[in-house]
Amino acid sequence: MRQGKLTDALDTYNEGHSVREALVGRDPANAGWQRDLSISYEKIGYVQLAKGDLMNALNAYKKGLAIREALVVRDQANIQWQLDVAILCSNLGVHALVPMDEQRVYLLRGLEIQQRLKDRNQLPPNQDHIEWFQKRLKKFDS
User: Fold this and answer.
1) pLDDT tens digits, one per residue of 104-124
2) What CA–CA distance (Å, rounded) separates 54 from 140?
3) How far apart are CA 120 and CA 63, in angstroms?
């Protein structure tokens, strides 16, 4: 993807995605495989977005978010899974096909996750995106 070979990147991500789906199919309770599948959806969404395929990118992000939300329900103390949800909230919060009121909800949710973790001294400094969320939310002030 970094080399600009979007079709090749999408093919590679789709191959990996098929493997991850098969693993989850064998053991749906395996949280690690579930997380890997959500990451696969996220990567596919990035490539589709870069290719201008907004609808499929949106669908991929939403499928990844659904998996991540289910993981957080299983273990609310898992910081990485909470951060994973915030990442996809950021993607959906700026996606052109998401209605503005939903964008705001996603951005607020991502910010809330980040701020809660920071307040508990659980937010890794390299994953602190609070200012990013705040900046995007300012467009809704007017």
Assistant:
1) 999 999 999 999 999 999 999
2) 22
3) 29
